[in-house]
Design goal:
With 482 residues, the chain is of the alpha+beta class. It folds into 3 domains: 1-132, no CATH class; 140-351, endopeptidase fold (from Nostoc punctiforme) (Alpha-Beta Complex); 375-480, no CATH class. Helices cover 49% and strands 11% of the residues. The chain has 16 helices and 11 strands. The chain has helices at residues 2-13, 23-40, 47-62, 76-95, 97-104, 109-132, 176-182, 221-225, 240-259, 280-291, 310-316, 351-374, 381-394, 398-401, 414-438, 447-467, and strands at residues 149-151, 168-172, 193-199, 205-211, 215-220, 231-237, 303-304, 329-330, 342-349, 376-378, 478-480. The strands form 3 sheets. The protein has a 7-stranded antiparallel beta sheet. A two-stranded antiparallel ribbon has the order 7-8. Strands 10-11 form a two-stranded antiparallel sheet. Helix 9 (240-259) crosses helix 10 and helix 13 crosses helix 15 (414-438). The chain is globular and about 60 Å long. Keywords: Signal.
């Protein structure tokens, strides 16, 4: 399972392992993306064609390499042209989602292939955008010029002020827990959070969202913008009046509880059908379901989990087991990309954070692979366990809880707290080693080398752990469950 994920993760980065690209290959790349663009203007004729065409272009893209550091740089104007062409291709693909799901794909394989191709094109754009950026530049969320902010020409959108009530903001956070959420389902995604926009009668913009730390909250839009995430995509429902009513309903529902000083708790069980607690995507599901009397079920395609992740998911709080895992599904933020009723309005990226996000994706891909194939399990250890238990108790002590720097919800149990802490610790250790390795070479780490480095690091650290536990980097907290 995770070998397949790794393959699709590698695809876009074999194209641009650094910002330079050989001139005679430039035409080939434009030719491939142009071919995909032409194909995307019309839906494929059959299920077999959907799979074959997606695989064909996958192979074409995968066969291109740009590892030679002597490659000449593409002209910036041509890079921007290629980014726009790729973005328009993804918009075309979205136009046919309804056809694919209704006419071709009862099994879901066609849509999975389409999603993989869409993700590969986005990663391609990421790397090209990163190559144009300057480290000294500061980027503000949902503000900027192309290609940092790409807009759908069929809609009026130039900045966050053009958001409408009922719009969705699909975003990617900067933490390892965000990378885990993005890659936790059978379908890998590039996003970890979903927010609902509400515009009141005075024209003021708010977001309704749910966070692990505080549960469900409403806040002025600028609070969300100031989080300065790595990426964000704006989606708009086909019935804007209903979307506005959904946003208004959830705004009032969440605000009533917040005004009482008791936020609706975060839903660690990811049970989108029970709204007593809410996780981020569930805010959207509950809003649309409630104002449509259950007729609008968002999204159309929901997330299933892999069997091997059941122990991890149980610690997270998800009520999945050996008996129900084939039927258990939830609303993962990235699922909204496959719902044809929502139009993609605009897409924004922070070029300075794309490399960090990409590295975290690679680390989590490998960690989930080890869980799947080598029975790796998180082991918090003595210090993390003591800290978690103490923090959990202090959080419930009235005099002390308001003074704690690190806030976490009262409905988070000790096991969950330990999992989040140990996930961050292991991820940060591996990323530190990747960053050290990065300093030894003059160009960004090619993806194959990145995965090989992480794998070799695991093997070496496991041997160290066997010889002297205290000298290992991360196997004290993440190791095979033997």
């Amino acid at each position: 399972m995770y070998k397949l994920r790794l393959l699709f993760f590698l695809l876009p980065f074999t194209l641009f392992c650094q910002s330079n690209y050989i001139a005679d290959k430039e035409g080939d790349l434009f030719k491939i993306v142009s071919s995909i663009y032409i194909e995307s203007q019309n839906p494929v004729e059959s299920y077999q064609n959907c799979v074959q065409i997606s695989d064909k272009y996958y192979q074409k893209l995968f066969s291109i390499s740009s590892l030679d550091s002597t490659f000449t740089r593409i002209e910036q104007s041509k890079i921007k042209e290629l980014i726009r062409l790729s973005f328009e291709t993804r918009l075309n693909i979205r136009k046919h989602l309804a056809f694919y799901e209704s006419s071709l794909d009862s099994s879901g394989v066609c849509l999975l292939k389409v999603q993989n191709l869409n993700r590969a094109l986005r990663y391609l754009e990421d790397y090209l955008i990163e190559s144009l950026s300057k480290d000294s530049t500061e980027y503000k969320m949902l503000v900027g010029e192309e290609p940092v902010l790409l807009t759908n020409k069929n809609f009026k959108f130039s900045t966050y002020n053009d958001l409408k009530s009922g719009d969705l903001i699909l975003s990617r956070g900067n933490a390892f827990t965000s990378a885990a959420i993005a890659r936790i389902g059978i379908k890998d995604a590039q996003f970890s959070h979903l927010s609902l926009v509400y515009k009141n009668d005075l024209g003021e913009l708010f977001t309704i969202e749910s966070h692990i730390e505080v549960g469900a909250v409403v806040a002025p839009l600028k609070i969300h913008l100031n989080q300065n995430n790595a990426r964000a995509v704006i989606f708009r429902f086909e019935d804007q009046d209903l979307a506005h009513e959904a946003a208004k309903y959830m705004y009032n529902k969440v605000k009533v509880q917040s005004d009482k000083g008791k936020n609706i708790p975060y839903d660690f069980g990811m049970d989108y059908k029970n709204s007593e607690e809410l996780f981020c995507s569930e805010v959207i599901y509950d809003g649309f379901k409630s104002v449509s009397s259950g007729k609008v079920d968002v999204p159309i395609h929901k997330t299933y989990f892999d069997y091997s992740l059941i122990p991890f998911l149980n610690k997270l709080g998800v009520t999945i087991n050996n008996q129900n895992y084939k039927e258990f599904k939830t609303f993962s933020p990235g699922d909204i990309e496959l719902d044809h009723r929502f139009s993609l309005i605009a897409e924004w990226r922070n070029p300075n954070k794309l490399k960090d996000s990409r590295t975290k994706d690679a680390i989590l891909t490998k960690m989930f692979e080890w869980i799947d194939e080598e029975n790796y399990r998180f082991k918090p250890g003595f210090k993390i366990s003591v800290f978690s238990n103490l923090s959990w108790l202090l959080r419930r002590t009235p005099i002390i809880k308001n003074a704690l720097d690190e806030k976490f919800p009262l409905n988070m149990n000790v096991k969950q707290l330990k999992l989040f802490l140990v996930l961050d610790k292991v991820g940060e250790i591996i990323q530190d080693e990747v960053n050290i390795y990065q300093k030894t070479i003059a160009h960004p780490i090619p993806p194959k080398d990145l995965f090989e480095f992480i794998e070799k690091l695991k093997i070496k650290d496991l041997e160290t752990y066997k010889l002297k536990r205290s000298k290992s980097l991360f196997h004290r907290w993440f190791k095979p469950n033997i």
